[in-house]
Amino acid sequence: MDTKTLQEEIKRTRPFEHLEEEVFLNFLRTHCVLSEEPFQLFKSEGLSSPLHNILRILRGAEPDGLPSLEIADRMVTRVPDITRLVDRLEKLSFAKRERSKTDRRVVRVRITQKGIKKIESIRPRILEIHRTQFAKLNRKELGMLNELLVKARK
Predict the structure, then answer these.
(1) What would the mean pLDDT of 120-130 be, rounded to a whole number?
(2) What average pLDDT does this structure show over 135-142?
(3) CA distances (Å), 122 to each of 45, 47, 78, in order?
(4) Residue of 63, 65, 117, 119 with fewest CB within 10 Å of its CB?
(5) Element holding 128 (H helix, E strand)
(6) 3-class DSSP state of 75
(7) Helices and strands (DSSP H and E) totals, the chain
(8) Where are the alpha helices (DSSP H) in the chain?
(9) Are 53 and 39 in contact (CB under 8 A)?
(10) How far is CA 67 from CA 97, 99, 107, in A?
(11) DSSP state of 98
């Protein structure tokens, strides 16, 4: 089994002074490695990770859609300009804005049929990427990793 430590991967000659620093850097390195394949898939589909995330959020919010600020609150990773991202989704015809008939100040964003088709076409490939990425972990280990990540965020 070719399993290198972070220290070996980054060719660090001295051990880390603090375990917390090593864990954090290991987490960042893992994020970079695991996000590369989905990044390439999204790029080939004319999307980015944040655009894909918004489409997933809007798909889950059907049939009502969501205001932009609510979308921002549900994002997996924080992005500074939801408006610009929604503009891009509208330009691609994957989402549309609708002003409330009862309160003109409220604008909801909804996924379009084209957006639904896009997200559904990507989903099986993304799931396969994730299954491959985590194939070396059994169900119990995946559950433990998930719990540890939640605990680290608290």
Answers:
(1) 97
(2) 97
(3) 8, 11, 22
(4) 63
(5) helix 113-133
(6) coil
(7) 7, 3
(8) 6-9, 19-44, 49-60, 68-74, 82-91, 113-133, 139-153
(9) no
(10) 9, 10, 6
(11) E
CATH number of the domain to which 134 belongs: 1.10.10.10
Please indicate, yes or no, if residue 84 is contained in any of the structural domains.
yes
Q: Which amino acid is at 81?
A: D
Structural domain that includes position 76:
14-153
Report if residue 148 sits inside a domain: yes
Residue for token digits 């999307």? 47
User: Residue 85 corresponds to which amino acid?
Assistant: L
Task: Look at residue 95 and tell me if it is in a domain.
Answer: yes
- What phi-psi label fits residue 64: left (phi over 0), alpha (psi between -120 and 50 degrees) or beta? alpha
Consecutive H or E run containing 96: strand 95-99
Q: What is the pTM of this model?
A: 0.86
Q: Span 114-130, mean pLDDT?
A: 97
> Look-up: residue for tokens 């939640």?
150
Q: What's the number of domains the chain is made of? A: 1
Token pair listed for 45: 């589909």
- Please give the Cα distance from 66 to 69 (Å, whole number): 8
- What are the tokens at 147? 């719990």
> Tokens 């991202």 belong to which residue?
85
